[in-house]
Amino acid sequence: MSAHGPAAPLTATPSGPLSGEAHVPGDKSISHRALILGAMAVGETRVTGLLEGQDVLDTAAAMRAFGATVEKRGDTWSIHGMGAGGFLEPQDVIDCGNSGTGVRLIMGAAATHDFAVTYTGDASLRSRPMARVTDPLTLFGARAHGRSGGRLPMTVVGAADPVPVSYATPVASAQIKSAVLLAGLNAPGETVVIEREATRDHSERMLAGFGAAVETRKTEEGRRITLVGQPELRPQTLAVPRDPSSAAFPVCAALIVPGSDVLVPNIGLNPTRAGLFETLREMGADLRYEDEREEGGEPAADLRARFSPDMKGVEVPPDRAASMIDEYPILSVVAANATGTTSMRGVSELRVKESDRIDAMATGLRACGVTVRDGDDWWEVDGLGPGAVPGGATVATHLDHRIAMSFLICGMAARRGVTIDDVGAIATSFPVFRDLMEGLGATFQAG
Ligand code: S3P
Questions:
Q1: Which residue has its alpha carbon closest to ligand 1 atom 5?
Q2: pTM of the predicted structure, to 2 decimals
Q3: Alpha carbon of 100 to ligand 1 centroid (Å)
Q4: Measured from the CB, is residue 325 less than 6 Å from ligand 1?
Q5: Helix, strand counts (H, E) of the chain
Q6: CA-CA 20 to 30 A from 263: which of 33, 116, 166, 194?
Q7: Cα–Cα distance, 42 to 89 (Å, whole number)
């Protein structure tokens, strides 16, 4: 079963050259935050370019359950918020579907309110660790009661008299950082998060945009982010930039399908998100940034990707992991089509994403004829060279959108194509993926 119906297998057949423009949807991380911060501001926030993937729609439904009005009028999403500390007690369980970002950020935002909330999600989300977020939330005075292993369903009893918190995140995670900052919005005084490695900084940028006093300083311990609690958040008009993690799929497809030349316009290149593109260029990819500019205070460019038969395997430095954490699955597909070995280290977080992404990719790539070695926090892919992946396998996607899309791209450049067991999860982050790829020249067959 997929998240929303019976499993729907899909086959990617070997593709002719890809060409044209790929207009990818809005950024998933920024879309979640636009809805949550909009619900915590007083008045109407208007958002264009919102990702209308299931993950974000689930967060919109959750914000309604907490009392916000969330509607779409024409191309604009309108959120009427209640102010920081103004959430109402939901009347039912909050179901965040497939989304770790959704549930963890919402848990944070609600944890400093004086009521209990029960959270759940699909089979993937119910298997993922939540203690990493509820541990710091208990420091504010909240209490969490979940299943064994800190898993959903879980009830978080919010703090009646929250106290501000200073917390050093034990793993590099923007979700943990953001949950603590959102909880800090309704605590008096200064909430501090310290992260050893920089993770995506959308929460900090957007909190400042909504009028909160938030400051980041580089210290010996890492980045120290200080938020002054109980601000009056001002509603905003936001244009969500396009998602670099979605752009990764047409870009990588163009690099490995012979004869391709694809333009992916207007992609945000925030350094906390752009690690994949840096890695691809180190591998020798013909990937150019055209018309580099600033959009809404963030660096952006049009990405131009052409077939790159001379790519070489590389060692991806562990300190780059946070800036490309969602892109290792598609990188491993490019690596299989490069010459030499690509090694990826310091990536234990991949084991607790929508699926165990090292295991899902290693198993599927091996079934396609690629040699992969893996350990707890590392994996290596031996490249076979351009167009040399045999393919011909049916791979399991484990309710994981990025595994599903990565193997469809793999099939486009493999000798015998690749079948995925279920296309359903793709709708969580990239509902127009199939149309967009077919528009570039890909061919997919149901079953
Ligand atoms: C996200 C952070 C990342 C990423 C996820 C989105 C976010 O998770 O994998 O897809 O929007 O904050 P971690 O911060 O837990 O690594």
A1: 101
A2: 0.97
A3: 8
A4: yes
A5: 12, 24
A6: 33
A7: 18
